[in-house]
């Protein structure tokens, strides 16, 4: 059972994040930390991109004031500050992609060498017993961290989407930590859940809030991707409270699948994997008639179902190689399905217009009629130089 003090920490982080977001809105306008509606962007008003900064302040201040200070915590704070600063500079000045990747790699190395968090074993994912990475541990950890950061970055293209997917992942990580007896991880994730939840009150489209008041920005998506990496690696690499590394993939299926499929498709077409386009899953769903809130709710629901199903499969002793093959099959299926855009757009049109889940999502979104499918296009993903 989660202790009351843990819940209080989450509420404290939520309250602080909510307050900081409110205080930063005039600052964002004064310093031009705004996402302007120009080029490929469809939102109609300049919007502050200080959501990530507010989340980071809420998490770091709450953690330092309410948790026991450790070297690992200071390492987390240092890496987070690096990502937030570089992300804000990128939001304001549009840095080259390699500067962002460099900062993400440095943050990952801080996590490894100062935080003591790294991927050392993959479990029996290949059916041949425990797979230890050995000398490949550090480069694999850096690669996985940079990959997760950019996966969250790429999926941040509809109001509320990245925040809901990260919140769902954190909830599932909390459940896995409690099931494994790792209360320390659960304490940390509750702080993160509270902070991201407070951000969503400004970022989601609601009946009383027709558009997002604050965006994550590159700073926010980088911070949240790093958070997911840190928590996932800490949880799955703890011999005292073992959780399968394969399970972590099923907690963030949408960002990882979307990122892998798009990179593979771009490489097959001879394009840079860092180029921005409108082929992300949220773009396709919006083209199929889903509004931004419906996209966020539908993908969050899908992510939760995937995580729950994978968790139950682990409890039923389903071999881990099968779970890995199933995830790769999901990615391959999406790759094939999106090979013909009109086919997948038609599928989403049919789902939205005729299925009961689409009706439920419209009710949950608080809209009596169909939402407009146009929303801001994600400028937050890494672009080519």
From TrEMBL:
Transmembrane portions of the chain: 45-65, 71-89, 101-119, 131-149, 161-179, 185-202, 214-235, 247-268, 289-310, 322-339
Chief site of localization: membrane
MF (Gene Ontology): UDP-N-acetylglucosamine-undecaprenyl-phosphate N-acetylglucosaminephosphotransferase activity
Key word tRNA processing present: no
Subcellular location per the Swiss-Prot or TrEMBL entry: Cell membrane
InterPro entries the UniProt entry points to: Glycosyl_transferase_4 (IPR000715)
Top class in the EC scheme: transferase
Keyword annotations from UniProtKB, A to Z: Cell membrane, Membrane, Transferase, Transmembrane, Transmembrane helix
EC number: 2.7.8.33
Topology class, membrane: Multi-pass membrane protein
Protein name as it appears in the record: UDP-GlcNAc:undecaprenyl-phosphate GlcNAc-1-phosphate transferase
């Amino acid at each position: 059972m989660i202790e009351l003090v843990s819940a209080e920490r989450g509420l404290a982080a939520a309250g602080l994040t909510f307050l900081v977001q409110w205080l930063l809105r005039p600052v964002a306008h004064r310093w031009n930390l705004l996402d302007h509606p120009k080029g490929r962007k469809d939102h109609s008003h300049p919007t502050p991109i200080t959501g990530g900064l507010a989340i980071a302040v809420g998490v770091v201040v709450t953690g330092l004031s309410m948790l026991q200070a450790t070297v690992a915590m200071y390492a987390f704070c240092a890496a987070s500050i690096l990502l937030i600063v570089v992300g804000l500079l990128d939001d304001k000045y549009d840095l080259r992609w390699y500067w962002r990747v460099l900062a993400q790699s440095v943050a990952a190395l801080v996590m490894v060498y100062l935080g003591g968090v790294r991927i050392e074993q993959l479990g029996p994912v290949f059916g041949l017993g425990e797979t230890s990475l050995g000398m490949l541990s550090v480069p694999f950890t850096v690669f996985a961290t940079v990959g997760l950061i950019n996966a969250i970055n790429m999926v941040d293209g509809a109001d509320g989407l990245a925040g809901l997917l990260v919140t769902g992942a954190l909830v599932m990580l909390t459940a896995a930590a409690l099931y494994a007896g790792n209360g320390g991880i659960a304490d940390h994730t509750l702080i993160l859940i509270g902070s991201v939840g407070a951000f969503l009150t400004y970022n989601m489209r609601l009946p009383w809030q027709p558009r997002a008041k604050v965006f994550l920005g590159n700073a926010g998506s980088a911070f949240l991707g790093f958070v997911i990496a840190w928590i996932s690696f800490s949880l799955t690499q703890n011999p005292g409270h073992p959780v399968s590394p394969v399970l972590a993939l099923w907690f963030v299926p949408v960002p990882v699948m979307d990122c892998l499929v798009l990179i593979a498709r771009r490489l097959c077409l001879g394009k840079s994997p860092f180029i921005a386009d409108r082929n992300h899953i949220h773009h396709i769903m919006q083209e199929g008639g889903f509004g931004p809130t419906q996209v966020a709710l539908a993908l969050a629901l899908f992510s939760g179902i995937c995580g729950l199903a994978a968790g139950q499969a682990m409890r039923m002793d389903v071999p881990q190689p099968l779970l890995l093959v199933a995830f790769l099959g999901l990615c391959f299926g999406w790759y094939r399905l999106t090979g013909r855009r009109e086919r997948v757009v038609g599928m989403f049109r049919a789902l939205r217009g005729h299925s009961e889940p689409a009706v439920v999502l419209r009710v949950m979104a608080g809209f009596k009629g169909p939402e407009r499918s146009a929303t801001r296009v994600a400028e937050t993903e890494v672009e080519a130089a």
